[in-house]
Write a structure and sequence with these properties.
By secondary structure, the chain is α/β, with parallel strands linked by helices. The chain has 13 helices and eight strands. The longest helix has 15 residues. Bound molecules: NADP nicotinamide-adenine-dinucleotide phosphate. Pfam families: Aldo_ket_red.
């Protein structure tokens, strides 16, 4: 099934997706809170749950989804679950076992969407962040097209309905799109995207290839100490966004997300606060005018909150890697 068909089926473009916390939030939230937030989100009406093996909470999230299926709130086919293949599992023979392990944790028979989490590969093995004796992350160089073939095989085996990528730039996408014998195109590319990094070039490229761009950190990220530079401007404090929000009678968060939705971007928004989970769902009963869209567009500065060096905590090891992340 194509992602377009999925979008139609799941109204993915019309649902802000509920993004669950990743590794960086271990210090702030418990896994149980992730489960509770998942239940709140499903009750509110969210149907797309974006998660990953790396986040370490697939057991709790799967339990919450299954509880909501068991109590009759939703059926399995109403839920659109996205999972991700972490960088230690890109060797082709590790892809299916990684997916099966996630499915077992989740208590699900299949995922709706499975993504290669980043184009960067670490040394294959069970260590999520393999490091050498100097504490530097050990990278590896499986041809990403071979990883992709293994992803295709997972789809053929019925373990996942659609496959895609995350943090890819256009060159990396082209590598897969032009791979000899390509069976399935990536249906989406999940990347950092917000008013300060509006990804207009990558969006144009993705649209031209019928690849959906999915945005994360749309609210300006969770601003976790040590993971982002707190001196960077914050989406929700941007004067233009605040002014437009006042004008349309909405919150800054709603305007920041609505701006992306109107450009055809799928929006992921993470919150563990029930009131915000509800607020972030109220995006479909208002519109930004062309003039307001242009004003928000003018805020772009190609500024990134998350870089792979911070992400893997291997600043000295990944000068090259930073340049290839989408
Ligand atoms: N694919 C990838 O490689 C990748 C990379 C990085 C991150 N991600 C994913 O992106 C997710 C979220 O990204 P992010 O942390 O950068 O998040 P974000 O969605 O931009 O921001 C989340 C932060 O905004 C707050 N928030 C939510 N709704 C709000 C509202 N209406 N008003 C004010 N504040 C609000 C949340 O606080 P409360 O929770 O307290 O409400 C949280 O602190 C991560 O959990 C991870 O899953 C993916």
């Amino acid at each position: 099934m194509t992602y377009s068909a999925l979008k139609e089926k799941q109204s993915l473009h019309n649902l802000p997706s509920f993004l669950l916390f990743c590794l960086v939030f271990f210090f702030q939230y418990t896994k149980e809170q992730a489960g509770e937030a998942t239940k709140v989100a499903i009750d509110v009406g969210y149907r797309h749950i974006d998660c990953a093996f790396l986040y370490g909470n697939e057991v709790e999230v799967g339990r919450a989804i299954n509880a909501k299926i068991a109590d009759g709130t939703v059926k399995r086919e109403d839920i659109f679950y996205t999972g991700k293949l972490w960088s230690n599992n890109q060797a082709p023979e590790r892809v299916r076992p990684a997916l099966e392990s996630s499915l077992k944790d989740l208590g699900l028979d299949y995922m709706d969407l499975f993504l290669i989490h980043t184009p960067v590969e670490f040394k294959p093995g069970d260590n999520l962040f393999p490091k050498d004796e100097n504490g530097k992350v050990i990278f590896h160089n499986t041809d990403i097209r071979d990883t992709w073939k293994a992803m295709e095989a997972c789809k053929d085996a019925g373990l996942v309905r659609s496959i895609g990528v995350s943090n890819f730039n256009s060159k990396q996408l082209e590598l897969i799109l032009n791979a000899p014998g390509l069976k399935y195109k990536p249906v989406c590319n999940q990347v950092e995207c917000h008013i300060f990094l509006n990804q207009s070039k990558l969006l144009e490229f993705c649209k031209s290839k019928d690849i959906v761009l999915v945005g994360y950190s749309v609210l300006g990220s969770s601003r976790v100490e040590g993971w982002i530079d707190k001196n960077l401007p914050y989406v929700l404090e941007n004067p233009v966004v605040i002014e437009v929000a006042k004008k349309v009678g909405r919150s800054a968060a709603q305007v920041a997300m609505r701006y992306l939705l109107q450009r055809g971007i799928v929006v992921l928004a993470k919150s563990f606060t029930a009131e915000r989970i509800k607020q972030n769902f109220q995006l479909f009963d208002f519109q930004l005018s062309d003039e307001d869209m242009q004003r928000v567009d003018g805020v772009n500065k190609n500024m990134r909150y998350l870089s792979i060096d911070r992400y893997v905590g291997a600043l000295s090891a990944c000068g090259e890697i930073c340049r290839i992340i989408g």
